[in-house]
User: Fold these one by one.
Assistant:
Number 1:
Amino acid sequence: MSEPARTRKPDLTKGLDKVQKFGTILLPHEADEPILAAGPRLAIYEWLTELRSRAELESVGLKPRATALLYGPPGTGKTTLAHHLAARLGLALVTVQAERLMTPQFGGSSNNIGELFDGLAEAEHGCVLLLDEIDSIGSVRLSDDSSAGRERNMVLTTLLTRVEAFRGMAIAATNRKDQLDPALWRRFGMQISVDLPDGEERFAILNRYAAPFDFGEDGLDILTDLTQGASPALLRQLMEGLKRALVLHPRLGLNIDDVAVVFRAITSAVAPHPDLPQPPLWKAFGTHAGQIRKIPWPPARAPKGRP
């Protein structure tokens, strides 16, 4: 007797052909779990619970919220958070850079927005939409009567209409919440602040991206203090730079004996976003060279097969 056929996993991209020209489709297995502060972590947990409690909510005249706006500084992991949420729901994330919807032809941008939402409606298994940098098409209405002003306002009106009518899940992200039109802000059922990580989150992020190297708690404590104000993206670049140096510098004949020299080279090649605070490691490197030399160096490497 033949073995029972294995259950095939559904093709989560089925029906999304028409939206691929506007963005990228990210699948659940590709998602990373974000390291979040208490506020956004609780908001996302409550939202997931809400989405899974439709019947209970409908019994009291409510529906689960299906839209959210993520706002915060650049590099704080808004896309990672949206991808994680979609993965927890078993859905693909369609991530669209909002500016890709823009075109110089009059009426073209509004047509693109309509085509995007019409395409999303054809997704056979549903999906989550992420409109990244939504401020590029959703900024405050212009009061002038120029052709550019009329076009911009028409784009905003189309966006407002399509977001409100959308029956799927939509997330928007922005680094400039103050530039969003108030009506667009109100279209989202949740507004979640994704801020720079505090000490506890920085420690966890540094530890994650240090693997498979072990800098020890004391070493990570030093790095946590010296990276105050750093975004998750910058922390990742820092630790990946260290791992590259540990692997490649000996092959290139470069000395890695002095940890401060290695850090100096990395911080010279990777910089914080100019709109964000300058962490001590970048702002006053020379002042902290002594602390850096207290980091266990070179770090031990976990045996193969161990995390």
Note: The chain has 13 helices and eight strands.
Number 2:
Amino acid sequence: MGPPRPQPLPSDAGERAGGRLAPHGQRAPLLGRVVPPSSARDLTTAAPWWYVSRHLDSRRSPPLNYRPGIPRYLQIADTIRGELRDEGERIASEHALCARFKVSRPTIRQALDVLVQEGRLYRHAGRGTFATPAAGGDRKLRVIGSVGDMMALGDETWFKFVSREVVLLPANIAQALRLPPRSSAYCIVGVRHSEAGPFQHVTAYMPLTIGTALSEEDLSKTSMIGAIERLLGIPIKLMEQVVDAALAPRQVAEQLQIRARSPLLFFERTYFALSGEPVEHTISWQTGRRYPYRIVLSRAERRN
């Protein structure tokens, strides 16, 4: 049983995904939160009753009294910024915002562009403009950046099994697990869910000794590596991974309830125990809207 492999992104994939996954050579919007300058923060106050359900109702929004000397699009951007709940909500259409702020569409687009560049909003082609979920505002919105984050993600979400079985390993996965060619391993396939729905398709391979020991365990509310640590007493020391952007294969798209060939984050991860031995090799297809990925790069110390 071999995992589905990533397919190259077409040149317009980043545009069709609303800019969340940019093709090679282009920059995707930042995922972090940007604090606006103090001069902009004081322009307006937030109006939490601006939202009805998950959509903005511009008819109930208070009028904006523009200050002289400050571009209107910046004042509009600051007003929208202050009213965002950072829960992935959809904001009003450009037409509705034009009516609310009594400005032209180019001015509204300038204001939205500011928030997109900050990472506070993202555009989804054919669906509209949405708030970027904030990692600090909701315990369910976790930014992934460490092995500890991966374990916590398993505790904060739930895993729905598709299959558990012993399989013959492809050569590349046998190599990753440091097993002889044509070795067998335990394979778990499933989909991880948050309250907003499925967001990650997982195929995990483990040596038979580890997989067999976990075969009767309830892994629906934990990560595999968390179970390996807690149930088997094998500390996880580090993880090696490859990250790519790829188009969702049909069977993955069906499980994630998205359209086939939608752009996704593609991860190959190998987890190593304190002893240095690999204990799990995982292939994941993940949407980036709710659980963004963070990486920290550092410079190696110079040797004299």
Note: The domain at 33-131 is CATH 1.10.10.10 (Arc Repressor Mutant, subunit A).
Number 3:
Amino acid sequence: MKAKSRKNLARIPFYIIMFTFILFVVGIFATVVIGCFSNDWSKTFLPKSFSTFYLKQAWTNYGIAKYYLVSVEIVVVATSLSLICVIPTAYVMARKEMKIKSLLHQFFQLPILLPELLIGIPLATIFYSIGIAESYGVVVAILIVIGIPFGLSILIPFIEALDERVEIAAETLGANKFKVFTKIIIPQLIPGVVSTLINVFVRLFTNYTLVLLVGGPKTFTLTIKVFNVLSNAKTEPQALLNSLTLYYMLPMLIFTFLTLVLEKMLKKRFGGK
């Protein structure tokens, strides 16, 4: 009994830390959500009255629809191209033994480990010097520089965890490499690909530094707009800023929730754990 009591006591700091963290995160989100619907919230625990006035004003004043469209266009293309490159590359790096395998792993980790400025500034210098900066193609290209390594860091361990004996058995029965990859590997990879898609999309959608370095007025994403407004918002009503923040948070929360549900369904469908 004493040992059990000590074990329970040892868990108390963990529970306190977890509860504090959850309360902190929920508190921040609740403050933003309640704040964007409030008309006057200064000296009371809850706002005195609620309305959607500031939500409508933020949507109109800041051109949210335009920045949503630009962000989705750029990030969807960058994420799709990243995945097209990630899937075969991750398979080769997970399954094939090469002398430079560890070197390749370290190389692909550099864009994740290094500060984005160290990557972005040289690329921005090149793009501006040849006159192709501030275009959709360049913004997509520089996001892919982050998207591919980030996707590989997620998908390679997933492939390494798959049972290689299934592939060997398929080859023994006469299946070629292409059939093994499309009929055996891809179905097993779907949960991992969905997980990679979630993380890469959110990472690229929230990227600020690289888009700021090579983007222009026509290619600035919602992240850039939100930062610019919040950094020069001394005279703006707090409810208006909360509304802008909510518009920025909602797509990521909805997308993450839907894709997590989809990932769970796919794992059940394809026998994932």
Note: The mean pLDDT is 83.
